[in-house]
Amino acid sequence: MIRLERRKEPSTFWRVANPFLAVILTMLAGGMMFVALGKDPVTAIRLIFFDPIFSAQFGSYSRPQLLIKSAPLILIAVGLAIGFKANIWNIGAEGQYIMGALFGAGVALAFFPLQGWYIFPLMILAGAFGGFLWAMIPAILKTRFNTNEILVSLLLVYVAERILAAMALGLMRNPDQPGFPGSRDLRRYESAHNAELIAGTGLHWGVVAALVAVIFAYVMMTRHMLGFHVRLAGQAPRAARFAGVAPARLVVICLGIAGALAGLAGMFEVSGPGGQVRIEFAVGYGFTAIIVAFLGRLHPIGIVLAGLLLGLTYIGGELAQMMLGLPSASIQVFQGMLLFFLLALDFQTNYRIRLREEVRR
Amino acid sequence: MILGSINPAVLLAALMVAATPILLAAIGELVVEKSGVLNLGVEGMMIIGAVTGFVIAVNTSSALVGFIGAALGGMVLSLLFALLTQVLMTNHVASGLALTLFGLGLSALIGQGYVGVTPPRTPKLDLGWLSEIPFLGRALFSHDIMVYLTIALVAGVWLFLSHTRAGMILRAVGENHDAAHALGYHVKRVRTLAIMFGGACAGLGGAYLSLIRVPQWTEGMTVGAGWIALALVVFASWRPWRAMAGAYLFGGVVVLQLNLQAAGVRIPVEYLSMSPYLITIMVLAIISSGKARGSLNAPGSLNRPFHASN
User: Predicted ipTM?
Assistant: First the structure.
């Protein structure tokens, strides 16, 4: 008879090892999925995980893409992880990302065609503010009315998507090309363009912001009182209240940080790689970032690694789509499986498998 | 006046159709939450139900078989959730999210060859002279069979929860799993069965969207219906009949909004179509606030994992 026994302390070894194991298991299960789809599994896995970086043929295109795709994931996930640690579940980062992009682009389009050094910094502020504002809706509803932040933040994603469509077709539509939906191309507007800092690397201001956010989060979580309060509230809510942690303030802070960072990610995307406000602008970074946060064990450094990996699957997915005709949805399945395996493996972190006889002795 | 062109009988009929998929998913989730489990994967199970129901119905040319397949599809996915949360003791919130993300991807993969296909028609229930009654006949008695089955399901769940021994055990497990365990009830078995029921209901709700309401398969076609169903359970304070009232209220908002779009009101379509989500959020806030005390009715052990210590 097999049974689970709770460990006194979560196992550090499995905490670190499980993400890697989960990736390997996902590759195996993904390979089986590709066989079921009638594709060669080895080629598909290689295309997704190795060719974007190592292949001579695609590398020059896809290597810069790695930073472009990973930066928003890391930026959003770092913010989400802080909230997750405190048991505050903001799962509407996709909406905050959209609102950040709209606020940022709104500033740029308002100044067009003026040129000036101050426009881009203003857009950054507006982007962060847009995401912050959108995250404040679930935060204030939670603190004032005790409303579930999971449902509200998620439902607001659908609202944000419709505002995005309304903007792309209405207020922000390019007046010079009225036949087409979508705003002016910000990449052609020098003062608002989030250009590559070093040509050919994919390094833009969003990547810098992601790095700063990672360092900031690391210091906050390990060295600052606020980080201690976040962890305390997550692990022992009652003890936290005795220690003087105001739950309402923590909700506002956690959602605010996550919202502002997601807004920044949206702003850097719309002014750089995305280029314009379009209906199809949002591609699910806000949801993938949830997987990144978990895979990175809610730790800033882990999130960097996890963000790079999932950024890789985005590019690899595109490659596999092009070369093998794999449907674009298969990469989503892949990401979902990754989270499943990680969660499933984590039982080893908290529990020990014991045989009945052993216990009696 | 543009509103004059809207026929109230047709409106009422459309409202019932719009409410049915959410009501199906919500009544399933209500049972799951009554057993103490919060399954946030409703959206994922719904869309898997939508696609499996659609694919099976098209291939067998029978909507009925499609619905059965959809219930099984949703149930299989929910078993994955049961395995994670009941056997492997994972975090409920994270597992539910994983279920939704995985379901959305997998459904797109399964359904890619079925975009633009027309599914077989679901037969209307012939109610004879009832559907001949003026106004009421058109509004209430001229629907497909699923609308009535859903109402029957609500009644069945109410009867089960409040008047049967098994329902009492399920509620005990949800209110206090330690006490239920001490009394000798199998907490995990009860919860797993509840999760499976919830999955089957969500699957049926999804299939109602793809086979009757739309009826087409498009990627991500549930657009948040699963999340609205989750909100509906809170709105209903975990009571079956209130869930039905809430679903019909919500259906009314959806239908009114669609009618306003069709009537050409000078508000852009995008703003009208966000109204169901906004109203859901507002209602949630009102219900959850201190005065209404709706949240006090939540099952005591909701979202608390159970692990027998010996």
Answer: 0.88
